[in-house]
């Protein structure tokens, strides 16, 4: 792609300049987030061999999968404040190099304690990446364009499931003989972790901190974006200081965090347990499990892009969030109700994945439209941290219930109920209520 500025002609609606920004930024950010998500959830496939090889229980796995999010939650807010201070380019690149190294080192795990420590450190390193990218994109796109952009960016999640499932299954099978003195699950951590380190290095060269640094835009294009973002900022009702204390005392941020927690509870249950649930339906070959697990993610990717486009065209956010949440809950109930019928159970998991994953990009335009620039850095990080607590509680809850009952049925019912509660809270969110809360924050 050329870096030379192109003078726009007759771009009254700004489509040309934002298309140029999208082509420049989104492909690289998409790839980074794809590996971010893959590094976060690939333990779901490693589990197929790892538990037997290391004699780990389901509870040990659930705790190890979930403890990642303790580190994530603890470091989310300070990491995003540091990103706001030192600049996205350096901070995002450094985070990627660090978590890529920790994720790769999981291949050396031999005890539960080592598993817990490395997952915790990986969570600490990843903490600021996602809210940092959301903040970064809010500096390039006004709110009315963010639904589609967030869907494009976050479609990396279903793509990571679509490609990661078969790829992880192939690695587990191909290296099952112990080539190089390592088991298949160890090769998986190595092959999927090292590219993240390389992407972190590239981030220093491919990202620029702000619109003023984008020399691949003309002066007119840069001014157009700055004007749009400035006007967007004036329309945000929640203002304040981006200190830890001020952000922690804003009730509206905690309400948004609760909604995001409900969404993520279903998302992480699917991400961490989908391979195991498919295996429990009678499928044993890792590659077959990988291909079956890819189907829900394929459908979710298409659905996510369609809903994102619809949200921007209609300039409507709440129902485009609430309907996918209810859809996710319905899918979990179907999967739990028909656990003995593989085809119907997989259909339920597909519906659940479509709804849960689509809720993610439909949620984030809401806080970015409501929080001013001074609040956004800390506010987005706190919302994300609250939501990511589900990443600890959800896998651990599923693992504990499975150990106690021998199945995941009750866990799926519980997660469906939580998602329904979150959708009802989201339904009550309005710009007027945000302005009222923001005025007293």
From TrEMBL:
<feature type="transmembrane region" description="Helical">
    <location>
        <begin position="375"/>
        <end position="398"/>
    </location>
</feature>
<protein>
    <recommendedName>
        <fullName>Putative tartrate transporter</fullName>
    </recommendedName>
</protein>
<dbReference type="InterPro" id="IPR036259">
    <property type="entry name" value="MFS_trans_sf"/>
</dbReference>
<keyword id="KW-0058">Aromatic hydrocarbons catabolism</keyword>
<feature type="transmembrane region" description="Helical">
    <location>
        <begin position="59"/>
        <end position="79"/>
    </location>
</feature>
<feature type="transmembrane region" description="Helical">
    <location>
        <begin position="91"/>
        <end position="110"/>
    </location>
</feature>
<dbReference type="Pfam" id="PF07690">
    <property type="entry name" value="MFS_1"/>
</dbReference>
<keyword id="KW-0813">Transport</keyword>
<feature type="transmembrane region" description="Helical">
    <location>
        <begin position="21"/>
        <end position="39"/>
    </location>
</feature>
<keyword id="KW-1133">Transmembrane helix</keyword>
<feature type="domain" description="Major facilitator superfamily (MFS) profile">
    <location>
        <begin position="25"/>
        <end position="434"/>
    </location>
</feature>
<keyword id="KW-0812">Transmembrane</keyword>
<comment type="function">
    <text>Component of the tartrate utilization system and may allow entry of tartrate and tartrate dehydrogenase.</text>
</comment>
<feature type="transmembrane region" description="Helical">
    <location>
        <begin position="319"/>
        <end position="338"/>
    </location>
</feature>
<dbReference type="InterPro" id="IPR020846">
    <property type="entry name" value="MFS_dom"/>
</dbReference>
<feature type="transmembrane region" description="Helical">
    <location>
        <begin position="344"/>
        <end position="363"/>
    </location>
</feature>
<feature type="transmembrane region" description="Helical">
    <location>
        <begin position="184"/>
        <end position="207"/>
    </location>
</feature>
<keyword id="KW-0472">Membrane</keyword>
<feature type="transmembrane region" description="Helical">
    <location>
        <begin position="149"/>
        <end position="172"/>
    </location>
</feature>
<feature type="transmembrane region" description="Helical">
    <location>
        <begin position="252"/>
        <end position="274"/>
    </location>
</feature>
<dbReference type="InterPro" id="IPR011701">
    <property type="entry name" value="MFS"/>
</dbReference>
<feature type="transmembrane region" description="Helical">
    <location>
        <begin position="286"/>
        <end position="307"/>
    </location>
</feature>
<dbReference type="GO" id="GO:0005886">
    <property type="term" value="C:plasma membrane"/>
</dbReference>
<feature type="transmembrane region" description="Helical">
    <location>
        <begin position="116"/>
        <end position="137"/>
    </location>
</feature>
<dbReference type="GO" id="GO:0022857">
    <property type="term" value="F:transmembrane transporter activity"/>
</dbReference>
<feature type="transmembrane region" description="Helical">
    <location>
        <begin position="410"/>
        <end position="427"/>
    </location>
</feature>
């Amino acid at each position: 792609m050329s870096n030379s500025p192109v003078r726009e002609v007759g771009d009254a609606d700004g489509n040309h300049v934002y298309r140029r920004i999208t082509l420049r930024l989104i492909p690289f950010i998409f790839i980074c987030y794809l590996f971010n998500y893959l590094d976060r959830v690939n333990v779901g496939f490693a589990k197929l061999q790892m538990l037997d090889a290391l004699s780990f229980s389901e509870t040990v796995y659930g705790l190890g999968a979930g403890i990642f999010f303790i580190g994530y939650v603890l470091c989310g807010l300070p990491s995003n404040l540091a990103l706001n201070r030192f600049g996205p380019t350096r901070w995002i690149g450094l985070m990627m190099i660090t978590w890529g190294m920790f994720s790769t080192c999981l291949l050396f795990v031999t005890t539960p304690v080592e598993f817990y420590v490395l997952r915790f450190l990986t969570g600490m390193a990843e903490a600021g990446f996602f809210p940092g990218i959301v903040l970064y994109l809010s500096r390039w796109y006004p709110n009315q364009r963010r639904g589609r952009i967030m869907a494009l960016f976050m479609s990396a999640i279903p793509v990571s499931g679509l490609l990661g499932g078969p790829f992880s299954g192939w690695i587990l099978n191909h290296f099952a003989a112990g080539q190089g003195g390592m088991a298949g699950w160890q090769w998986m951590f190595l092959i999927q972790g090292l590219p993240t380190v390389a992407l972190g290095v590239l981030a220093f060269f491919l990202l620029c901190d702000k619109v003023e640094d984008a020399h691949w835009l003309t002066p007119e294009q840069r001014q157009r974006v700055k004007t749009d973002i400035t006007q967007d900022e004036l329309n945000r009702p929640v203002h304040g200081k981006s200190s830890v204390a001020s952000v922690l005392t804003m009730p509206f941020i905690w309400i948004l965090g609760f909604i995001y927690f409900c969404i993520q509870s279903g998302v992480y249950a699917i991400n961490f347990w989908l391979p195991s649930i498919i295996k429990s339906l009678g499928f044993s070959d890792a590659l077959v499990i990988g291909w079956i697990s890819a189907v829900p993610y394929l459908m979710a990717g298409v659905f996510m892009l369609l809903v994102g486009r619809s949200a921007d065209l209609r300039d409507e956010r709440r129902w485009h969030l609430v309907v996918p949440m209810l859809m996710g809950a319905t899918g979990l109930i179907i999967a739990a109700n028909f656990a003995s019928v593989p085809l119907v159970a997989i259909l339920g998991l597909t519906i659940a994945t479509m709804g849960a994953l689509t809720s993610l990009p439909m949620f984030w335009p809401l806080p970015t439209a409501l929080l001013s620039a001074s609040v956004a850095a800390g506010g987005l990080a706190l919302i994300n941290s609250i939501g990511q607590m589900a990443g600890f509680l959800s896998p651990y809850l599923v693992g504990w219930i499975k150990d106690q009952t021998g199945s995941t049925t009750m866990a799926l019912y519980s997660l469906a109920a939580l998602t329904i509660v979150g959708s009802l809270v989201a339904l009550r969110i309005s710009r007027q209520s945000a302005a009222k809360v923001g005025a007293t924050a």
